[in-house]
Amino acid sequence: MNLQTVGTSPHRGGGFERITGQQKYVADIKLSGMLESKLVTIDSAHAKILSIDTTDAKKIPGVRLVMTSADLPQPVPRFGPQIADRPVLADGEVKFHGEPVALVVAETIEAAEEAVRLVNVQYEELPVAFTVATALDPAAPLVMDASLRPDEPLAKTNIFKEHHFGWGEIDDSKADLIVDNTYSFPMVTQFAIEPHAFIAAPDKDGIAVWSTIQHPYWLQKILANLLNLPLSKVRVYAPDPGGGFGGKQHTKYEPALVFAAVKLGCPVRLVLTLEETFQAVRRTSCDTHIRTGFTRDGKIVFQDITANYLLGAYVDIADRVVAKGSYAGAGPYNVPVVRIVSRSILSHTPPATAFRGFGNPEVNWAVESNIDEAARLLGIDRLEIRLRNLAEKGDKFIPYDKPSDGNWRQTVLRAAELIEWQKPLLPSHHRGIAVGIKLGPTTGLSYSLVRLLVDGSVIVSCGTSDMGQGARTVFAQIAAEELGVPYEKVNVIMGDTATVLYDQQTSASRSTVLMGNSVLKACYSIHAQLKTRLAKVYQIDESEITVEHGKVKLPDREAPIAELIKSALGKLGGEIVGVGEERKDAEKDHPLGGSACFYEFNCTAIEAEVDKNTGDITITRYVTVSDVGKSINPMQVHMQDEGAAVQGLGHTLMEHYIFDEKGRIRNLGAADYRILTTMDLPKEFYSETVENADGPGPYGAKGMSEGALLCVSAAVACAVGDAIGTTIKDLPLTPERVWTAIQTQKSISSPQ
Amino acid sequence: MEKLVPIEMNINYQHYRLNVSPIKRLLDVLREDLDLIGTKECCGIGECGACTVLVNGRAINSCLMLAVEADGADILTAEGLSNNGRLDSLQEAFLEKGAVQCGFCIPGQLIAAKYLLTQNPHPTRQEVEEGMAGNLCRCGGYERIIDAVISVAEKGEKQK
Is A488 among the catalytic positions? Predict the structure, then answer.
């Protein structure tokens, strides 16, 4: 296939607006008569609310409403993507540090801020469960009211759900070596540079909401339920988010704003501070206990994984994170016996939600670190031990799921080549290599509308959210390719549930594949209609015309579609409209409700210098190689993988929430919670792809952009482990932690 | 209500006379009073650089400066980088090198880069890393942002 636009890297769709300061994010939108609002919180992670006195707050000039749960319909409405457990505002009890107890609405933000300080909340501190251990303690306070899940046997515990996956008989397994370790993955936050923002406004007999949301149609459904409105009366505008990374997938404070806007009859806006986003979204932290059995020659005999993920006070989508994140926990290896037990544990901490990698990095680093330890103990090369176990294309490495869909060995060998695995190193330098795998979407439904206009330009309308991954560019490229028009003539419309067709969600690296196929199908529909019209115009049989890849073949000539559209449409002009539908249906008996649409596979290899006097790690070379099937836009693919690497280095080297003894977060905001800057980058950086066009998406594409984050921690930890001769078991790898591990190792190897 | 204070500023080569609240930050006045929404707010404490603007040629976090402190100042925001529809070479380089993902930090990055190149027209890579360290990008586009800045420096155009 001779591709024109696909496989090239035109400028990012929406790029011009972003470099000129014209791009409008939610916080940039002003509506006439719009009021400002602020959340009222208390400095406690778990408390019984005794009283909320709003008298003084209401006296501030310009304050229009101080809304508490008492002002909401009773019982207080609850919502959530997995279970309706979260009250619109705290209902008698605060369950995490930062849970809002009231919303102040005022004419100016200054008046709202002043009033917030004057809301007098009397509360009684309650015992707090904010770690896996304290939440699992039989004496622990119950985080979720048992009445919210009456039929659940675990309702009287803090375990929301326990998931079991695996195959074979673990008790019968024999191994020459068993590596048995427990690893901890820290609590980290998405930290999109655009803090969440929301506007709600009455809209005739319905409601309109602007949100930084990744899943506008899911928000629409939740609001319709809460307000008892038909979906058609709930309009969600979702301007391109300024970064999402999973933290903007689900409903947060939109319901509170909607109730306030309805009460006041005018638009109300809420823009979170960065500190408030820390208390709104975070990744599931996780303690993983893993026993890995090996034969003497390094073949994995079994993997026995128990992963205790710590959820927040409300489930959000985090139980799905746990299930899907642990499901492929045994990795891309052929392992005869696997047992995976993963628990979703509720706690008095901010609600955990999706975050790039969706639960997989948490377990991946444990599994990969155990393999490294085995290699050390068995005297096998750490690259070789992985190759000995890696699934080949077509292997049913998860017996009840899609077989391996890529030449993963090729990916690993390329990464090894780029890091020069076999070459000697300076004594202070060490290498690490790791692989990661993640399931793409298990279900999906994406509609799109493509309009070929009379002048040969194109409008693509689709409900994906472009939060930085560049979906606009990719869909424009596909339409340009198939309709034979220049990329610049395609306009992509997104982010309005009233005018754009339904899309299930923007997550799981799905959009290039599912929405991409949908756009492709819409273009095919245009091809078919064009054929019918041209047959009429030229009075020939349809079978004499071929329309494909942007070109029309007539019996006597060949021309780009754009050249023939005018004559095809005739005197009245107009347009040809194609609707695309791509669905991946649920599978009834599958443990996840559906098998993988594709796998994201990545190999990350690094070279690091470890300063044994300070514990400081410098990454001297970084290699990330992903199997992406086919890059629709190679530059964007590399942008995504480089970004995933940088983000992964954050939780690997420096990021974590710090709690005090009462479960309050002590490092909220950018000053005390560090993410990577330009000063923390690897000295050399290489990003490559493996492209065998073996994916289910357009032109053989697979989803990508999460893959390159999966095994960052493992690759770095494996290099550090090689440097200091022991396995590090807690992230992030701060200098203090590494230095302490070095000292401990010294005292073991040279006993007094 | 607090008394409004009259101030004058040249913003993006245009003269403004404004009456501003003494408690408003420069960021608020740009965004709310003048609709110059290209200047963004993230951390609000001068750590992330999303609100970077040039004040009398110096890169400033506009969340840390009161509007009244900018009385009489020349200010440049991202909106002022392009001239009559002609993009600044930094803007072009950011697009060309793929430095723009979600875009929220980009106006601040561009202004920080502008400042860096006016101070040091031929920076080494390390100097670019140091010069851009005050601007966070969670999409992790740093390598490409640095590449973009270096590519402009290599062209050797004089920064205005």
Answer: no
Return the bridge partners of A93, or none: A48
Of residues A125, A384, A706, A736, which has the active-site annotation? A706
Q: Which CATH number fits domain A31-126+194-242+247-278: 1.10.10.10, 3.90.1170.50, 3.10.580.10, 3.40.50.720?
A: 3.90.1170.50
Residue A565: how many CA atoms within 13 Å on its side-chain side? 23
pLDDT (0 to 100) of residue B84: 85
Distance CA A334, CA A396 (A): 8
DSSP state of A390: B
CB A207 within 8 A of CB A256: no
CA neighbor of A703 nearest in space, from A327, A446, A448:
A446
Q: Name the minimum distance, in Å, from the CA of B129 to any CA of chain A.
A: 5
CA A220 to chain centre: 20
CA distance A362 to A286: 6
CATH architecture of the domain formed by B89-155: Orthogonal Bundle (1.10)
Find the helix or strand (DSSP H, E) in which A307 lies.
strand A300-310
**pLDDT of A745:** 85
Cβ contact A642–B36 (<8 Å): no
At residue A519, what is the residue type? V
CATH for A15-22+444-584, options being 3.40.50.300, 3.40.50.2300, 3.40.309.10, 3.30.365.10: 3.30.365.10
Banded model confidence at residue B158, pLDDT cuts 50, 70, 90: low
Say if the Cβ atoms of B42 and A274 lie within 8 Å. yes
Closest CA to A177 of A434, A433, A371, A391: A371
> Which residue is closest to B145 within chain A, CA to CA?
A678
Residue numbers in B near A647 (CB within 8 A)? 138, 140
Residue B1 has pLDDT above 60, yes or no: no
Architecture (CATH level 2) of domain B5-80: Roll (3.10)
Please check whether residue A42 is in contact with residue A94, taking contact to mean a CB–CB distance below 8 angstroms: yes
Q: pLDDT tens digits for A489-525?
A: 999 999 999 999 999 999 999 999 999 999 999 999 9
* Closest residue in B to A241 (Cα–Cα): B102
For every residue of B73-106, which 3-state class applies, written as one string? Answer: CEEECHHHCCECCECCHHHHHHHHCCCCCCCCCH
Q: Does B78 touch chain A (CB under 8 A)?
A: yes
Test the B interface: residue of A212, A275, A678 with most B CBs within 10 Å: A678
Alpha carbon distance A131, A145 (integer Å): 19
Check CB contact of B30 with chain A, cutoff 8 Å.
Answer: no
Closest CA to A540 of A554, A552, A519, A520: A554
Please tell me the distance in Å from A512's CA to the nearest CA on chain B: 16
- Torsion from C-alpha of A676, A679, A682, A688, nearest 10 degrees: 70
Element (H, E) at A450: strand A444-453
| Pairwise CA distance, residues A186 & A583, whole Å | 36
Same fold, B5-80 and B89-155: no
Asked if residues A80 and A312 have their Cβ atoms less than 8 Å apart, the reply is no
Determine the topology of domain A285-441+590-749 in CATH: Aldehyde Oxidoreductase; domain 4 (3.30.365)
- A14 sits in the region (left: phi over 0; alpha: psi -120 to 50; else beta) called left
Spans in chain A with pLDDT lower than 70: 749-752
ipTM greater than cut 0.85: yes
**What's the confidence (pLDDT) of residue B156?**
80
Chosen for mutation from B82, B97, B101, B126 (greatest number of chain A CBs closer than 10 Å) is B101
Which segments within chain B are labelled E, that is strand?
A: 5-11, 14-20, 52-55, 58-61, 74-76
- Tokens of residue B125, six digits: 């890579």
Hey, are the CB atoms on A193 and B50 less than 8 Å from each other? yes
